[in-house]
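Form 7-S
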Amino acid sequence: MRRTFLTLLLLLVLPVALPAAVQPVFNRAPLAEVPYAELPLGAIRPRGWLLDQLERQRDGLTGHLDECYSEIVGDNNAWLGGDGDTWERGPYWVDGLFPLAWILDDAALKAKARKWVEAMLASAREDGYFGNATDHPYIEGQQRGKSHDWWPKMVALKILKQYYMATGDPRALKVMSGYFRYQAAHLDSEPLDHWTEWGKWRGGDNLAMVYWLYNQTGEAFLLELGDKIHAQTVDWTGLFLDGECLRTQHAFHCVNLAHGFKEPVVYWQRSRSPEHLAAPDKALGVIRTTLGLPTGLWVGDEMTDFGDPVRGSEFCTISEMMFSLEEMLRITGDLRRADHLERIAYNALPTQATDTFDARQYFQQTNQVACTREVRPFVTEHFGTDNVFGLLNGYPCCTCNMHQAWPKLVQNLWYATLDGGLAALVYAPSEVKATLPDGTAVRLEEETAYPFDGLVSLTVDFHSRKVREAAFPLYLRIPSWCTDARVRVNGESLAADIRPGQPVRIDRTWRRGDRVELILPMAVSTQNWYGGSTVFERGPLVYVLKMQERWEKKAFAGEDRAQYGPYYYEVTSATPWNYGFSASLAGKHAYSVQVSPVDAYPWTLSNAPVSIRVHLVRMKYWVPFRGNAGPIAYFAQDGRDYEGDEEVELIPYGCSTLRIAEFPTRP
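Output:
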């Protein structure tokens, strides 16, 4: 223990000689060719509202979790050499803390993140194992056993990968290579589910890191190790192609399903089998009419269930499904993954944490009319704490795992392309700096109010004042929901085949100050979801009933305080919510859309940049039940259980806390 501590101290004090900046790396043979590669961590910087979002994380729990939750992620954590928590929660936090620190270039956050990375590097043994190797007796609230479990190491490997992408430190490659040799030597006797079942469900994360290292080093044994990991992982391809498990209640833990989506696509790089690419599409098609929610997620509180809008969706599902989609997008270039990624990021993600990032929900509901401490009909219920906002309420995994979502979205706004260019596949205000294959350092600034407005403007610049021009292709994604997109270069319309769901390629010699404008008109539309309910959409956003909010901070007491943390927020409203959509008002469905300038932080009730006025009816018998919108037929072909005709206001889902997103449908 003392030797490890001294080694860690020296590594934190003494500078480490690092190579030149990391460059994008594409797949090595025999892995399949992929269209995109990640840029170095820190090459993409957020701007505008997205920068404000990340700064709120810095000032909130992401930047201070070691103070607010010190008993788990403080200095006594076993990953740091202590005898405390040894499992997933420390790495979960750092998996989000690390990219946040480098994207913001924040010295204080970097110091916190580096401490964990240096401890991981220093813990590597001669046989390749790294991390804590000692189990300790159980203490309430801590996971101190099963230190050798494969699953938490999968999260730690993602951290080491990001560390290398930020610094180029070869020690990360050495430790990962040694660990994978250790894994290759032990998986036969100690398979992925040897200590806990989580490893076999989440083996796709392990596999992704194996292939990433192979692309860096070319070590042949990694391909065979990948085959073994794939064989020991749950057969997601077979489950997805069959589909029956997605028509069955309680078939999966909701977060395992999010992890599972990437595994067939990751392994496709090795197998090149069409069924591995087809499997996720088949699964998403089934989920759309069974488990699915209009936010791009599914009901999972914690076990999967049919998509009733008052059932819960766990925060960890957001983080892990976004990561899966980011991996799938990079590997396949399928722009539907970017559409799906934005659907989650710009609807579900902003609303499940407080504006100051000091609290989160364990479960959110698409029809959420109160966040109160009441027992709701969730499969895994935690004494009425699941949908209030707090530090540890529900279960504390999400307190540690919620931090990766926004920073990794930033990291996946832009990619390097196989033909030496750049691709903007997910839209948000940002800036990217990249080095072209000929060594030219280029900078592109993205100005946009997306996802609230469809104008995306890009300006070209170069790092050196001596460089006036450079030739490279620029790719822009056309979302599948946009049927009449347009592109202008320096004010002139681009003569190109512009189609929904396809990229536009602009290959030219770019000069400093060149400006590209992508115009994505956003029309209001409706879709039918659970039970025939009606959902309003515009662009990538779902629009929901605007409900006034009353926030009240309360204290947990006694045993609850020890289990759930010191405080929580309840949110209630006096706004009527029992509205439905009636086709009889078709003549009044010319929606009135008002778009305002985007505030530095748009994800609030008062700052919502878009408002849609619609005519709805009141459902006479739809009443509250135990804090929920009570049971109702979401579709009826006759009957008169509604009355009136009221004009109401809809706002973006992500700007709401209380809402109706799925409206009962009537004639």
